[in-house]
Amino acid sequence: MPVTDVTTDAEKLTMTLVADFAAPVERVWAAFTDPRQLERFWGPPGWPATFTEFDHTVGGRARYHMTSPQGERSSGAWEFLMIDEPRRFEVIDGFVDSDGAAADGMPSMRMTYEFEVTESGTRMINVTYFDSVEALEQLTAMGMVEGSTMAMNQLDIVLEGLRAYAQGKGTRTELLDDTHVRITRLIEGPREFVWRAHNEPELMRQWLLGPDGWVMTDCVIAAAAGDSYRTAWAPVDGTEGEAFGFEGEALLVEAPRRMVTTERMTGVDGPGTVNDLSLDEEDGATLLTLLIEYPSRELRDMILATGMTDGMEASYARMEKELVR
């Protein structure tokens, strides 16, 4: 992971984050000064960022919001104080309301980003300066250290490029913590089509089948937040297994970029999962990222042990081979 150290200093009222990237300084600088690239790593997993304003000049302003799987928003703004391309920039970062005004009860911070040349690429040193011990304690209690670490650990994917990161590597499963799993798969095709393949029943019935020998028997789509969905499968041609299905509700739908749903197996009591699907396109290919939140480590391990990743790979390979055009 790129982040190598995060420390807080109550006497100096600072938080310092250090990360090393295998990319030139100019490439790292470009990622921090292009809002479309920033959106791919600025928010931690589950809270992706959307930049709605970006004036990268001294005195200029950037505005963004991060959206949770449940649709909650946390909004912020930068004011650029100093820019020394490609080595250093400095901003005032603060929480804002929907109109862009400073949010009541929330502190602002001065932040510096420095980019140093190393033998392997670039070292980034990010220092956050707080106005008081209370502000430092308030934001660290809100998870600033963990959130910043997870966000910056996503930057290496952006720097590497989607094809170099994921092409030819199939479906990959990462355990982020006891209850969160991240699944990634590069699809050779445009984002709009991959979105359609997840949201049009006639397309879903052609690829979302897992291993050969199964057919989708039910497919009801959740087109908007609050809608319910259900899917079901059954074995054919003597394939072993019993029919099963899933059902749930859409929590967030932002076509063609993101969709968040709850999921539980039909007819099974107890808590289910929250599935956060996001699609990023680059050079005609789409990186599919599925962040799954489980209610417990035990359920996570039980579901992964069913061969879920292999079944997903069979489906994604089928989509890529038979549908993408």
TrEMBL record:
InterPro entries named in the record: ASHA1/2-like_C (IPR013538), START-like_dom_sf (IPR023393)
Domain of life: Bacteria
Domain Activator of Hsp90 ATPase homologue 1/2-like C-terminal: 23-160, 190-322
Similarity comment text for this entry: Belongs to the AHA1 family.
Protein name: Uncharacterized protein YndB with AHSA1/START domain
Native source species: Homoserinimonas aerilata
